């Protein structure tokens, strides 16, 4: 397979050489025509100049002086009478002049005309200017120029164009080689980067500057590499966390099951170990259930069936369901809803969100504190805020609390409760409702969870 730099180089070469050839040919033809036209005009102007002199002094000495002047020039002059008979001529132009003077058949204007223009095939180009004396034609001044000088001039012009063309070709090749490398270098780097990505190596670093399409492509590939690297790292951490989460309760289950199987153990003690085994089995079941929910959310198979719900009525039912648990721990639960707003939500899923958030507030609050959840309406948005006066969340942990299996309590104690997946599921469900959830917290003072939903 040919390299892209070679293909681009060939493409640029063909395009540029094509354009240069057209421009050079156009310029060459234009210059040749202009130079020939200029020579003919100069020859005609020279004939008109002699004609003007003769019209002033039409006598033998003046005519001989004109002929003598042209004898020392590259041009030749022929002077005829009004009938075309040659009276005077310079050098060896007589034979050529006879053919030209006898072939004239039309009247010549006073400003003169060019008689012979075919410089490529004829031996001479010529002009004629009439001599008017007393408003009558007295004779004619014919001017001749050998076309050999014109051919020499054109040859030199071709030579200059050839040298310029070769020089331009070399410069074009150098420029194309440079430009093709400049253009293809970032493409090659991107190709190498994508090959690394395809092999699972996400440590790609592309130094991209600028804002053109290539730069944007490079930035996109770099963003993709960063995202894949983050996902790879997150996957490793997730698998390690899941392994830990499963290993711990399974260790308890196995350990206590071994003890419970002993024949010499008392029945009361056996019941105690069986109870622990049951609790750990429930913990595993909850973990697997949460993982299954997250898998459904990731695969977009998590069904959200919205219905129109009166928000105050919905919050009142949540309050009644959670109040006994708060009363047992002697924590005040306050519910505030001053609007009769209706929102479109999945009743079952959103109840799961509220119970999860209130359960977290309950776990991390002390006796005698207050937990408040309220509904606030703001133009096109509805906010549901759960505030507690609990232990709070450290500032460095706050950005990560919605990550999967992230725990503020790094000890992962069995009695700490939870699987570390609850808030991740909450976030996914809320986002499936096209809403957002944010957290505000001050360590030692409490936490606020803020759900924002778009009011239809």
Automatic annotation (TrEMBL):
Reaction catalysed by this enzyme: ATP + protein L-histidine = ADP + protein N-phospho-L-histidine
Domain of life: Bacteria
Domain Histidine kinase: 241-456
GO molecular function, one term: ATP binding
Enzyme class: transferase
Entry annotated with the keyword Translocase: no
Any Pfam family matching the protein: HAMP
Gene3D superfamilies on file: 1.10.287.130, 6.10.340.10, Histidine kinase-like ATPase, C-terminal domain (3.30.565.10)
Keywords attached to this entry: ATP-binding, Cell membrane, Kinase, Membrane, Nucleotide-binding, Phosphoprotein, Transferase, Transmembrane, Transmembrane helix, Two-component regulatory system
Compartments in which it is found: Cell membrane
Membrane-spanning ranges: 6-31, 161-180
Stored SMART domains: HAMP (SM00304), HATPase_c (SM00387), HisKA (SM00388)
Membrane topology field: Multi-pass membrane protein
Main subcellular location of this protein, as a coarse class: membrane
Domain HAMP stretches: 181-233
CDD domains: HAMP, HATPase, HisKA
Its EC number(s): 2.7.13.3
Ribonucleoprotein recorded as keyword: no
The protein's name in its UniProt record: histidine kinase
Organism annotation: Metabacillus fastidiosus
């Amino acid at each position: 397979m040919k390299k892209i730099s070679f293909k681009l180089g060939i493409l640029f070469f063909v395009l540029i050489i094509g354009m240069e050839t057209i421009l050079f040919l156009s310029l060459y033809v234009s210059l040749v025509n202009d130079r020939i036209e200029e020579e003919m005009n100069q020859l005609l102007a020279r004939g008109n100049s002699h004609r003007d002199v003769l019209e002033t002094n039409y006598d033998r000495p003046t005519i001989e002086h004109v002929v003598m002047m042209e004898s020392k020039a590259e041009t030749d002059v022929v002077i005829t009478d009004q009938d075309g008979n040659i009276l005077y001529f310079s050098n060896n132009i007589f034979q050529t002049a006879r053919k030209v003077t006898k072939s004239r058949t039309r009247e010549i204007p006073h400003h003169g005309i060019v008689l012979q223009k075919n410089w490529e095939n004829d031996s001479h180009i010529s002009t004629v200017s009439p001599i008017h004396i007393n408003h009558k034609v007295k004779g004619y001044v014919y001017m001749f120029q050998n076309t050999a000088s014109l051919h020499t001039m054109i040859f030199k012009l071709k030579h200059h164009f050839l040298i310029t063309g070769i020089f331009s070709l070399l410069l074009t090749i150098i420029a194309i080689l440079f430009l093709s490398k400049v253009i293809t270098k970032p493409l090659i780097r991107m190709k190498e980067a994508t090959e690394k990505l395809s092999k699972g190596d996400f440590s790609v670093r592309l130094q991209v500057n600028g804002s053109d399409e290539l730069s944007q492509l490079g930035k996109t590939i770099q963003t993709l590499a960063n995202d894949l690297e983050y996902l790879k790292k997150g996957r490793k951490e997730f698998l390690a966390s899941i392994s830990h989460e499963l290993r711990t309760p399974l260790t308890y289950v196995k350990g206590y099951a071994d003890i419970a199987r002993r024949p010499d153990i008392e029945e009361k003690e056996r019941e105690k170990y069986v109870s622990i085994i049951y609790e750990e089995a429930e913990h595993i079941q909850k973990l697997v259930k949460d993982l299954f929910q997250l898998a459904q959310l990731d695969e977009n198979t998590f069904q959200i069936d919205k219905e129109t719900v009166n928000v105050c009525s919905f919050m009142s039912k949540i309050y009644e369901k959670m109040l006994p648990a708060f009363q047992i721990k002697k924590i005040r639960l306050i519910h505030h809803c001053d609007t009769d707003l209706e929102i479109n939500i999945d009743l079952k899923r959103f109840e799961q969100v509220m119970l999860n958030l209130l359960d977290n507030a309950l776990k991390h609050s002390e006796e005698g504190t207050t937990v408040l959840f309220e509904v606030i309406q703001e133009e096109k948005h509805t906010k549901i805020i759960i505030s507690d006066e609990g232990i709070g969340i450290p500032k460095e942990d706050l950005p990560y609390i919605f990550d999967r299996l992230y725990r503020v309590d790094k000890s992962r104690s069995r009695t700490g409760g939870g699987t570390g997946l609850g808030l991740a599921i909450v976030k996914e469900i809320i986002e499936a409702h096209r809403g957002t959830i944010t957290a505000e917290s001050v360590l030692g003072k409490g936490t606020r969870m803020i759900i924002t939903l778009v009011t239809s």
